[in-house]
TrEMBL record, chain A:
Regions crossing the membrane: 187-206
Keyword DNA repair belongs to the record: no
Organism whose genome encodes this protein: Callipepla squamata (Scaled quail)
Domain Amidase residue range list: 34-95, 133-193, 236-476
UniProt record similarity statement: Belongs to the amidase family. GatA subfamily.
Record protein name field: Glutamyl-tRNA(Gln) amidotransferase subunit A, mitochondrial
From TrEMBL, chain B:
Recorded catalytic activity of this chain's protein: L-glutamyl-tRNA(Gln) + L-glutamine + ATP + H2O = L-glutaminyl-tRNA(Gln) + L-glutamate + ADP + phosphate + H(+); L-aspartyl-tRNA(Asn) + L-glutamine + ATP + H2O = L-asparaginyl-tRNA(Asn) + L-glutamate + ADP + phosphate + 2 H(+)
InterPro entries xrefs: Asn/Gln-tRNA_amidoTrfase_suB/E, Asn/Gln-tRNA_Trfase_suB/E_cat, Asn/Gln_amidotransferase, Asn/Gln_tRNA_amidoTrase-B-like, GatB, GatB_Yqey_C_2, Gln_synth/guanido_kin_cat_dom
Lineage of origin: Eukaryota, Metazoa, Chordata, Craniata, Vertebrata
BP term (GO), one: glutaminyl-tRNAGln biosynthesis via transamidation
Organism: Callipepla squamata
A GO term, aspect molecular function: glutaminyl-tRNA synthase (glutamine-hydrolyzing) activity
Protein name: Cytochrome c oxidase assembly factor PET112 homolog
Length: 513, 436
């Protein structure tokens, strides 16, 4: 059951094959049995159940709020959700009260927590047990990278399509809420849901898990249950007065057509994505995918994005500059950690920040402030902005030449085992992690990682499609066709198997033990 | 000989693209329009009384260098003894408008008049309540002195002045201080000062530690604000998604200067009266309400509003809206006066009674205090005859040609009637009787 798509679950709920409380219980059981993975920081168990009961009543009356009523999703712990504690997996925010209306931010999704808190393999599988879908965020690749490593679909929408209100800012000019789902169709469904319940309305109670076990690399989830309704005040996508960078136009939710003919498609293969360090397995999967399109009649054209090679460096300059400014709000004055130091206010600020931020965050703040100094501003910040424009223009030119969608790898390789992962310092690591993904953030374009194959080690590999601005429908339609062709195996944890008895279990499974 | 420029602050809207590092704001940074102000090269016209005489007003214009939008910050209060800092975040993050004026003003009253006019404009537009005591409007006055024909002197900045009265005082004090300093062979330091309202003088402020590198960067959360006019407005745009200045301009309420001109034209009052009406909070509305409810000419009504009502309001520090005498009651009183039922001195008495706010109508007070004029001609004639009979000496004087003495007789008649006699009528009767 927990392997089914949102639409399937929704249909099962409507037909009464499954009730919201049953679904909720199964999800909670799954989370409990996989607690050793430390994927979730906060599980809003009681309220989730209460909400499930309410949804159940609505289904019994035949009046569900919408297609997704009664379906639980996970939310990355850098969204402020009404009534639920937000921690960002950081010491800085651990005392944050639930009543805060402020945006706040700390150890930052892209920045990664200190090494004691992470376990690559655990992470790898974590998204698998995300019950149905998850709301993440994507600054340089933080939705697409884990999606690729975990064998799920990760969508980074066009910058400005989805409101960032409630998302703790890392890099305002690049942050986008990301969507993680089991299949491409579900990503389109989640795009169409209302924001109201996620960001504003719901009041949840929650139970906290022991915080000593925080660990995930990419995503720390709050499990919450929310009622989704498609008829309340617009969708997740579209204009939000509380985020001036959102598009003014109204977003029309869409369902994806099933492509039968791809002969009219032009798929671009940007040669700059053939970077040093790209594993042969990924390269093979990439070529295979290109052939798949070619054989089906699509035009597959090698294209060039000449400035993309400078992207990762510029990304780091711009990212640290914004981090330096965004982290300034954590002074211990209004929320979050506050040092006991009381000699003076200045010393309290200093001690609070010293204690609250780890080396990675401190390093980013310092370098960001360095780039913004008067004598450095022109040389670093302005130059990086200019190159950013060139990078974006490269994409515009390629799409202007008739290319519909670009096909690239998402990551250099499959997931790195924990022991290897911790060998590299954070800067090197994030340069490797984001190298293939951050250009889409620099240009603000929509991109989706689609699970493609398993590596020799049996770990998932994903490929990335990058589309035209605000052309999510076209992008996802192509991704859906591709998903159908590659038939990515369903990966099953032993623990998941136990929880997952009964309905809709007709898919083949590959297992981890 | 003296010049200064000053800066004042406040507004609700904001939209601008730069962040600067700052400690006293919840976000840790302030947003400002450092590079591209929203408006440049403007001007503000205002009127100024010469020597405090309302009848001698001159219109002046001050050039506005620029208007820039930013966010207000918090306020930190340092307790050096306990090395503690208290932070007041009440205004932190609120949109703020900084108006930078050129050094076109030459004394405290001049500055005060300009700021008052600006305050009225902001209130009229609804940009800000601009209540200075609440920090919604603050003035930083830059003051320097120089001899005619010479370049501007070194200027000092008196920061955070929070009342118009203090502004006038602070500027005048600072001018005198600088002149004194220079005349004694000293120099003026380029420094920030604060106005001590209790001592009535300016004092140097604690200097901020060193020069700050604010580490500005563009604010990505606020897209550029593009102002269009009817000509530059692109075709096929959604009108709700763009700012069209012409559209907004058409919908602006009357600004204070227009309001004054209309009052002068509509009611035939003097320009200086229109100033007082517009400058006093709610007084124009009060005046117009009274005019609507009375037969008395606006020209006469204005006297009651400005000399009687306003002086009472000022004495008790009230605004027109808080007046214990409503426009309805005042109109009632003026109607009694206009119809000749009471004398103007009686009307003043009724006014005093009304001010007590005991809920009585003017007519009730007139009845209770027997203030109505004696309408009975015969009764008046009898009283006049009695006075003439008693005052042979005065009557003789008048008959010998000293006409002015009649005023004394009129006074006596009024005393005998306790003010209830119409002085014009009394004069007529007396003249008639004396010429017989």
């Amino acid at each position: 059951m927990l392997r089914a798509s949102l639409r399937q679950i929704s249909a099962a709920l409507k037909e009464g094959q499954l009730t919201p409380t049953e679904l909720c219980q199964r999800c909670l059981a799954l989370i409990r049995s996989t607690r050793f993975l430390n994927a979730y920081i906060t599980v809003a168990e009681e309220t989730a159940f209460k909400q499930a009961e309410e949804a159940e009543k609505r289904y019994k009356r035949g009046q569900p709020l919408g297609e997704l009523d009664g379906i639980p999703i996970a939310v990355k712990d850098n969204f402020n959700t009404a009534g639920i504690e937000t921690t960002c997996a950081s010491n800085m925010l651990k005392d944050l009260g639930v009543q805060m209306g402020f945006l706040d931010q700390s150890e930052i999704p892209g920045v990664i927590q200190d090494s004691t808190r992470r376990n690559v393999y655990q992470n790898l599988i974590q998204s698998l047990k995300t019950p149905t879908g998850a709301l993440g965020s994507d600054t340089g690749g933080s939705t697409r990278n884990p999606a690729a490593h975990c064998g799920v679909v990760g969508l980074k929408p066009t910058y400005g399509l989805i409101s960032r209100h409630g998302l703790i800012p890392l890099v305002n000019s690049m942050d986008v809420p990301g969507i993680l789902t089991r299949c491409v169709d579900d990503a389109a469904v989640v795009l169409g849901i209302t924001t109201m319940y996620i960001f504003v309305c719901s009041v949840f109670l929650f139970r906290r898990l022991s915080r000593s076990k925080l660990n995930s690399i990419y995503l720390t989830y709050i499990f919450l249950f929310f009622n989704v309704s498609c008829d309340v005040s617009g969708s997740l996508a579209g204009h939000d007065p509380k985020d001036s960078t959102t598009v003014q136009d109204i977003f029309q939710p869409f369902a994806l057509p099933s492509l039968t003919d791809v002969s009219k498609l032009s798929i671009g293969i940007p040669k700059e994505y053939h970077v040093p360090g790209l594993s042969s397995e990924i390269l093979a999967a990439w070529s295979k995918a290109a052939d798949l399109f070619k054989n089906a009649g699509a035009k597959v054209i090698e294209v060039s994005l000449p400035h993309t090679r400078y992207s990762i460096v510029c990304y780091h300059v711009l990212c640290t500059a914004e981090v330096a400014s965004n982290m300034a709000r954590f002074d211990g004055l209004e929320y979050g950690h506050r040092s006991d130091m009381n000699e003076s206010t200045e010393s309290m600020y200093a001690a609070t920040r010293r204690e609250g931020f780890n080396d990675v965050v401190r390093g980013r703040i310092l370098s960001g402030n360095y780039f913004l100094l008067k004598q450095n501003y022109e040389d670093y910040f302005v130059k990086a902005q200019k190159v950013r424009r060139l990078i974006a223009n490269d994409f515009v030119k390629v799409f202007g030449s008739g290319i519909d969608v670009l096909l690239t790898p998402t990551t250099l390789s499959d997931a790195t085992p924990y022991m290897e992962f911790i060998k590299e310092d954070n800067r090197t690591r994030s340069a490797q992690d984001d190298i293939l993904t951050q250009a889409a953030n620099m240009a603000g374009l929509p991109a989706v990682s689609v699970p493609t194959a398993l590596s020799q080690r049996g770990l998932p590999i994903g490929l990335q499609f990058i589309g035209r601005s605000f052309q999510e429908k076209q992008l996802l339609t192509v991704a859906k066709w591709f998903e159908k062709q590659v038939k990515f195996p369903v990966i099953q944890l032993e623990e998941v198997k136990k929880c997952d008895s009964g309905v809709l279990q007709h898919q083949k499974s590959a297992s981890f033990s | 000989m003296v010049s200064f420029l000053f800066v004042l602050k406040d507004l609700k809207i904001f939209n601008l693209p730069l962040k600067l590092a700052q400690s006293v704001v919840p976000a840790g940074y302030q947003i400002t329009q450092q590079r591209v102000p929203i408006a440049v090269n403007g001007s503000l016209s205002y009127s100024l009384c010469i020597d405090n005489k309302m009848s001698q007003m001159v219109t002046k214009t001050v050039r506005i260098k620029q208007i820039q939008l930013e966010q207000d910050s918090g306020k930190s209060l340092h307790d050096d003894a306990r090395s503690q800092t208290l932070v007041d975040l009440n205004r932190a993050g609120v949109g703020l408008m900084e108006v930078v004026m050129e050094p076109d003003m030459c004394c405290g009253e001049d500055a005060a008049a300009a700021v008052r006019e600006l305050q009225l404009i902001l209130q009229t537009l609804g940009s800000s309540q601009a209540i200075m005591a609440e920090g919604q409007l603050r003035v930083d006055a830059n003051v320097s002195v120089h001899h005619p024909g010479e370049p501007y002197g070194v200027r000092t900045e008196v920061k955070n002045i929070n009342s118009i009265r203090f502004l006038a005082k602070a500027v005048d004090y600072e001018i005198q201080r600088q002149i004194r300093e220079l005349e004694n062979g000293g120099t003026v330091l380029n420094e920030t000062r604060a106005f001590d309202s209790k001592l009535g003088c300016t004092v140097p402020m604690r200097d901020k530690e060193g020069k700050q590198d604010y580490r500005f960067m563009p604010e990505p959360n606020l897209p550029p604000l593009i102002l269009y006019d009817a000509k530059s407005l692109p075709a096929n745009v959604n009108h709700q998604q763009v700012v069209n200045i012409d559209w907004i301009h058409e919908r602006l309420p009357d600004l204070p200067s227009v309001k004054r001109a209309k009052l002068v034209e509509l009611y035939g009052i003097l320009p200086e009266h229109s100033f007082t009406l517009v400058n006093e909070d709610g007084l124009t509305d009060f005046f117009e309400d009274v005019v609507k409810q009375t037969q008395m000419k606006p020209k006469k009504v204005i006297g009651w509003i400005l000399s009687d009502l306003l002086s009472h309001l000022k004495q008790h520090s009230l605004t027109a809206k808080e007046s214990p005498i409503s426009s309805f009651l005042l109109a009632g009183l003026l109607n009694l006066l206009e119809k000749g039922e009471i004398s103007s001195s009686a009307a003043k008495q009724v006014f005093e009674e009304l001010w007590k706010g005991e809920g009585k109508t003017p007519l009730e007070i007139v009845k209770e205090k027997q203030l109505e004029l004696i309408q009975d001609q015969e009764e008046l004639e009898q009283i006049c005859q009695a006075v003439i009979d008693e005052r042979e000496k005065e009557v003789m004087a008048i008959k010998e040609g000293n006409v002015k003495v009649i005023n004394k007789l009129i006074g006596l008649v009024r005393r005998a009637t306790r003010g209830r006699a119409n002085p014009l009528l009394v004069k007529q009767i007396l003249e008639k009787k004396l010429s017989e």
